[in-house]
Specification:
This protein has about 190 residues and is mainly β. The chain contains no helices and 19 strands.
Length: about 190
């Protein structure tokens, strides 16, 4: 709890940073060449700030499971083979002034990087996300199978003042339904 990490460079391995806890601050962090996840936050990953950093050549850049009050600002993520930011059950999240140039490895590396087909190359908001804001970001160069933002069953989301560049016949924003117990639910 109340942990601060500043001006660190992390490279190689499965996961760059794994964190649980309250009121942590990750500033000016560079994470590269992590095959699965750059920053993995879960459990009590609440009141967190991830700011002014850079990630490249990672499986998933930031993967948050069940956090509250998370601010991601001024981050550049390039070359995520799966998803740059993936949230599941996260609440009160703001992603602002970030730069995404995803899928930079062209899905051709044979070095064990995690690749999940069907996920977007930039932001994936999974089931249980609430009050998510994506604002002032630049999205460039997705892969052939993904897009930029996929939202599944998100309550009170806001996507505004972003710039999208599409190079393949994919999507800028995809609003998806969650299929459960034989019924489709849409919000």
């Amino acid at each position: 709890n109340v942990f601060m990490m500043r001006r660190c460079y992390i490279a190689g391995g499965e996961t760059g940073i794994y964190a649980e806890g309250w009121s942590s601050n990750f500033t000016d962090i560079t994470v590269r060449w992590c095959r699965k996840i750059g920053i993995h936050g879960r459990a009590h990953f609440n009141n967190i700030t991830i700011r002014d950093g850079y990630m490249s050549r990672v499986g998933t850049g930031i993967y948050i499971q069940g956090g509250n009050g998370i601010r991601i600002q001024g981050l550049g993520i390039e070359g995520a083979t799966s998803t740059a930011i993936r949230l599941g059950g996260a609440k009160l999240v703001t992603i602002t002034d970030c730069y995404f140039e995803a899928d930079g490895m062209a899905r051709s590396l044979e070095q064990g990087f995690e690749i999940e087909e069907g996920f977007p190359s930039s932001i994936y908001l999974g089931v249980g996300c609430r009050a998510i804001t994506v604002e002032g970001c630049i999205f460039r160069c997705t892969g052939k199978t993904g897009g930029h933002i996929a939202i599944v069953e998100c309550l009170r989301g806001s996507v505004r003042r972003n710039q999208f560049q599409l190079l393949h016949p994919n999507y800028g924003i995809s609003l998806r339904s969650f299929v459960g117990k034989g019924k489709e639910r849409h919000r």
